[in-house]
Design goal:
Helix content is 46%, strand content 20%. The chain has four helices and ten strands.
Length: 315
């Protein structure tokens, strides 16, 4: 025990002797360590990722209305592949200032897009109108560090009968779609492609959607025809049985037959409406196929690419 204690005292004496001989060096190392720690803390506060708060974030399915009453734009698709640094968005437009039984789209040529990110990015935005009410957007060079971004869409379509200067102000003609960098809507299957290839791919994708809609309309027609057939059988059965009914029951049977006939007329109207949808969807497919051929041949002029700006505040 005494030997161990003497050994500890010996080590302590050696340390004190070294400290005394190297006091300046000891103080210099200590002060340098303190300064280095303060510098690291300062560096961390300046360059560490800042928490970004954005009001009014947009998600798929959201529909934004122009305050001048000219229409609305709906976000129908959002995909992002951070590895490829690309994002694909889909928008659907509707013009509200024109009275019509059918939905009227906002002319794509009257829409002006701009892109702003919170952190500096060399992003490029390509806008491709596919059908008359659908617009596909591809954003390239959008790294996960973009933080948040705003896509502003100005509707330059004149409003019929409007004399108010407020209706024509830029603020009332603009909707802002805001997105924040996160792990949602990530699609690793997205691959970057040239402007021409993206335009063709977007058009082909829309063709597929229209073909699915046609199948849905045809299925609805088959369902309507089945209902009509069932109603007709019920009417025939009611008419046969009614000849044996008493007067009070005959009246009820006639009311039932009238209700079934009304239902048949409703199904016929629905079939007519579904056939109109099929014709419209087929027209869209024909136009899309023509657009694809024109893109391939170079006849179709691709819209100009929009470069991104950046701002710390996404108001």
């Amino acid at each position: 025990m005494k030997k161990q204690w003497n050994r500890i005292k010996e080590i302590w004496q050696k340390f004190k002797s070294w400290q005394h001989l190297n006091l300046r060096m000891f103080r210099l190392v200590f002060a340098s360590s303190l300064l280095a720690g303060m510098a690291l803390l300062l560096f961390g506060t300046q360059f560490a990722p800042q928490k970004i708060t954005v009001d009014g974030l947009t998600k798929v399915g959201d529909e934004l209305n122009y305050t001048n009453g000219s229409g609305d734009i709906k976000l129908v698709e959002q995909k992002y592949n951070p590895a490829e640094k690309i994002m694909v968005l889909g928008f659907k437009t509707h013009r509200a200032d024109v009275e019509s039984s059918n939905a009227i789209p906002i002319p794509s040529k009257n829409l002006k897009f701009s892109l702003v990110t919170v952190n500096p990015e060399k992003a490029k935005m390509q806008i491709i109108p596919t059908t008359n009410d659908h617009i596909a957007v591809l954003i390239r060079n959008l790294s996960p560090k973009y933080g948040a971004m705003r896509i502003s869409i100005v509707n330059r379509t004149p409003i019929g009968g409007s004399e108010s200067s407020d209706d024509n102000s830029k603020e009332n003609k603009t909707v802002d779609f805001k997105f924040k960098a996160n792990t949602k809507n990530v699609d690793s299957s997205l691959k970057d492609m040239g402007r021409k290839d993206f335009a063709i791919a977007a058009s082909n994708e829309e063709v597929t959607k229209q073909e699915k809609l046609i199948k849905k309309h045809k299925k609805n027609i088959d369902n309507d025809l089945s209902i009509i057939e069932s109603d007709k059988n019920n009417i025939e059965s009611q008419e046969k049985e009614n000849q044996y009914n008493i007067k009070s029951d005959q009246k009820k049977a006639k009311e039932t037959i009238q209700s079934l006939n009304d239902d048949i007329e409703e199904q016929k109207i629905d079939i007519k409406r579904e056939k109109k949808h099929i014709a419209d969807d087929q027209d869209k497919i024909n136009l899309l196929n023509k657009q694809i051929l024109d893109i391939q041949s170079g006849e179709y002029t691709l819209p100009k690419v929009v470069s991104s700006n950046y701002s710390k505040n996404l108001k």
